[in-house]
Every structure is written in structure tokens, then in C-alpha cells.
Automatic annotation (TrEMBL):
This is 2Fe-2S ferredoxin-type domain-containing protein. The keyword Disulfide bond does not apply. PROSITE patterns: 2FE2S_FER_1, 2FE2S_FER_2. The keyword Oxidoreductase applies. It comes from the Bacteria. InterPro entries: 2Fe-2S-bd, 2Fe-2S-bd_dom_sf, 2Fe-2S_ferredoxin-like_sf, 2Fe-2S_ferredoxin-type, 2Fe2S_fd_BS, Aldehyde_Oxdr_Iron-Sulfur, Beta-grasp_dom_sf. Transmembrane segments: none annotated. Residues 1-76 form the 2Fe-2S ferredoxin-type domain. Keywords: Iron, Metal-binding, Oxidoreductase. It comes from Actinoplanes ianthinogenes.
Length: 164
């Protein structure tokens, strides 16, 4: 099968049809930024962008993604020039132990794209002008858990990245 990851095309041969996208990224392509947390789609540590939309890679069978484009945390920025969300997390200390950080960052990038496209969330009101309110960001990031509790610093990091 063919899979494009972070702009590079990969041909995967002999792939077990039960292999998840997460396991392909970590074990076959050695992209270990994406973390295996719960392996049940409950924590968000494995969040990547699949054709531009955020997904839990532990729930996606790799074989079903023929010709898909995957972006991991390693593919967001460039050496010396981090993605605005990565920069925001650094500047606002939006992490502690760092285990959930790659998934948080990928999810934030996806959430900001959803906001830019005008997609509502569960808390978006009919007259909601502020799609970067704390409530809005919390709702959009609710699928990503942080055991350390670095949430208060993630909010300004994400809000600032939206303005860059």
C-alpha cells in the first residue's frame, strides 16, 4: 500500500491487515512523536491529521488508508521554524511531562482549521462571535487528555497560534 506521511511517500509491503495507523507510524516508519496512550481512542495521545482532519490513529486500520496523507507532529514544523501551535506551546509552557503534547498539538492544529472553516462545535451558539473563547477551545480539545493538568497554559497557546 501507499501512504504519504509528512509529505514523503511510503510503500508498505507485507502489512498485516489488522495493523493500526499508529503502529505503522511508530514501528514501521519510526515516527515516535505520535504516542500510544490508551490504545482505545479515549486519551488522544495518538492524534494525527489524516487528509487534514484530526483522528485517533489507534482506531484507524492502516490498510484502509491507501493513498491517504498523514501529518504527524514531526511534519508540522521545520527545524528552526516550528509550527505556530508548537511555538505557542513552548512560549506558554503548554506541557509538563510531554507525553500528550504531540496529540494535543495535532488536535489543536485540526481544531483551528475547523474554526477557520466555520465548523461549529457543541458549544457554538447561533450568535457566537468568539470562536476562540475558552469554552470553545476546551470543547474542541476535549478528546485530548493531559494527566499533568497543563490545560490552563494550552488555552493561550492555542489562541495565540490562531492569530499567527
Amino acid at each position: 500500500m501507499r501512504l504519504t506521511v509528512n509529505g514523503a511517500q511510503h510503500h508498505l509491503v507485507g502489512l498485516d491487515p489488522r495493523t493500526t495507523l499508529l503502529d505503522v507510524l511508530r514501528e514501521r516508519l519510526h515516527l515516535t512523536g505520535t504516542k500510544k496512550g490508551c490504545d482505545h481512542g479515549q486519551c488522544g495521545a495518538c492524534t494525527v491529521l489524516l487528509d487534514g482532519r484530526r483522528v485517533n490513529s489507534c482506531l484507524i486500520l492502516a490498510i484502509s488508508q491507501q493513498d491517504a496523507e498523514v501529518t504527524t507532529v514531526e511534519g508540522l514544523g521545520h527545524r528552526g521554524e516550528p509550527h505556530p501551535v508548537q511555538r505557542g506551546f513552548l512560549e506558554h509552557d503548554g506541557f509538563q511531562c510531554g507525553f500528550c503534547t504531540p496529540g494535543q498539538i495535532c488536535s489543536a492544529v485540526g481544531a483551528l482549521d475547523e474554526i477557520a472553516r466555520g465548523w461549529p462545535s457543541a458549544v457554538t451558539g447561533d450568535d457566537d462571535e468568539d470562536l476562540l473563547s475558552d469554552a470553545e477551545i476546551r470543547e474542541r480539545m476535549s478528546g485530548n487528555l493531559c494527566r499533568c493538568g497543563a490545560y490552563p497554559n494550552m488555552l493561550p497557546a492555542i489562541r495565540e497560534a490562531a492569530g499567527r
